[in-house]
Amino acid sequence: MTDLRPGDASLVRKVNTQVTLRALRREGVATLTQLGRITGLSRQTVEAVLDELAERGWVREVPPDEGVMGRPARRFGFRADAGHVVGVDVSGDRIVVTLADLNGDVVACERVPVAGDAAAPDRLDAARRACLACVDGAGLARTRVWALAAGTSGIVDRSGRVSLSLTLPGWTGVDLAGIAGRWFGCTALAANDANLAALAEHWRGSAQHASDIVYVLVGHRLGAGILIGGRLHPGRSGAAGEIGTLRQVGWEDAATSLVKDGSVEQVFAAAAGGDRAALRSVDRYAENLAIGASALVLAVDPDLLVIGGAYAQAGDVLLGPLRRHLAELCLSGPEVVTSTFGDEGVALGAVRLALDRVERDVLGL
């Protein structure tokens, strides 16, 4: 028998805990025998691991189903309510907050408007109040929030600081992660909104089947996020996908060219009804959108191009001309789909980012 070196025993326990917890989260509810078969561990080892996890409050014993005869096998389940995460979208005209448990199931949501010209301190205070209202409204103790992630427009560096924002007043230089971490006294992260929306689509939306993804956020501003191999690709400084900063692309003026008379919704509605002037406006917008999107498509060669954001609700009225222009510009155009989540995708992607951190740093997965 090989002698264990100092530290080996604790490493073995850690690995046993990881594989057991992973199996239990995947199965939902399982018996000792089932977990032993899945993990390859002995019944005694699995039982010891579950006792330890129960002491931490992460596992509970599940009562037998009614009507079961004889002595039923003990069943265990992961306590997804042991902790929670918050995802928040801090945008130009609204704050969207999503509260989720450790399985990523949404517990509560909060949405509040914010003025487009709001100063940075006012925007941050609105986000703070919305997050607290969401958690308090769900009847949850604030200490049960284990992590928070925030999405916002602009370039966000790896520390969670906004290094450049062209749309939100006073937003450049804001330490979004550092400030948000004080709201609940927990770990906090921050990332570009389009990146987080792409993450949400890959997790539970239109891009679950894809590995390499370009996500384009279309609304009063245009932005893009990139996933490569199923992982976010923010780039060295967080600026990957910020193709709209090139004026030659035309993204900066795209929304303005779409709306000359009436609102965006009216233009899309008129185009859907066959109005020729509205159709020409939408076509010009789709062409501008396609120029920037095609540059990203040619660089990444993705499996999928996802169109999300407020304007994506126009559906085929926008996607039809967009697909046509992309076909003219790309060597091999990818499949083009609309977002599953609309303007809720950023907050949900922030939930996924926060869960990733909890799984790594708290659950040890």
* The named CATH superfamily of the largest domain: ATPase, nucleotide binding domain
Q: Work out the strand percent.
A: 15-25%
Secondary structure tally, helices: 11
Biggest β-sheet description = 5 strands, mixed
Tell me the number of structural domains.
Answer: 3
Task: Look at the structure and give the mean pLDDT.
Answer: 91
**Gap between N and C termini, in Å?**
29 Å
CATH architecture verdict of the largest domain: 2-Layer Sandwich
Query: How do the strands line up in the largest sheet?
Result: 6-5-4-7-10
Structural class: alpha/beta
Task: Outline the structure in words.
Helices cover 41% and strands 21% of the residues. With 365 residues, it is an alpha/beta fold. Strand 5 and strand 6 form a beta hairpin. The model has no long low-confidence stretch (mean pLDDT 91).
Topology diagram in text:
Layout: H1 8-27, E1 29-31, H2 32-39, H3 43-56, E2 59-62, E3 75-78, E4 84-90, E5 94-101, E6 106-113, H4 120-137, E7 145-152, E8 155-156, E9 162-164, H5 176-184, E10 187-192, H6 193-204, E11 213-218, E12 222-228, E13 231-232, H7 254-258, H8 264-272, H9 276-300, E14 304-308, H10 316-329, E15 335-338, H11 345-361
Parallel strand pairs: 4-7, 7-10, 11-14, 14-15
Antiparallel strand pairs: 1-3, 2-3, 4-5, 5-6, 8-9, 11-12, 12-13
Helix pairs in contact: 1-2, 1-3, 4-5, 6-11, 8-9, 9-10
